[in-house]
Design brief:
3-stranded antiparallel β-sheet
Length: 125
């Protein structure tokens, strides 16, 4: 088994395996755009897996919960506006937020955030 950089010649096979196995789960990403690197794993029988590392924009906030809810909400909107502006200026097409508080999660849902497909996992490296 070998791992190598993704090559444009791999794209046709990538489209076929995505369509066959993952079309209902997620949109096929463009591994040649906005990825730090993309890889192909293959053996003597052909390609097994194609994947890559994509940077994501994450909005992280720390809010003083001693302040009035209306003030906290106004501050959230200002942070989101600034975060969206910065993310767009850096060519990101998504802004992530990992939320533990159900009320803030609901607030973000009402302001355009949506759940991710699949379960969000993290690996500390």
């Amino acid at each position: 088994m070998r791992i190598r950089s993704l090559e444009p010649t791999d794209l046709e096979f990538l489209k076929k395996i995505h369509e066959k196995h993952f079309d209902e789960e997620f949109v096929l990403p463009n591994f040649l755009r906005n990825y730090l690197c993309a890889f192909t794993v293959e053996d003597d029988k052909g390609i097994l897996t194609i994947g890559g590392v994509r940077p994501i924009a994450e909005c992280v906030t720390v809010t003083n919960k001693d302040r009035a809810p209306s003030d906290r909400l106004d501050a959230l909107y200002r942070i989101l506006d600034a975060s969206i502006f910065v993310a767009q200026k850096h060519d990101y097409d998504q802004l992530h937020a990992f939320v533990q508080d159900k009320r803030w999660s609901n607030r973000l849902h009402r302001n355009g955030f949506r759940p991710t497909k699949g379960q969000s996992l993290v690996l500390d490296i």
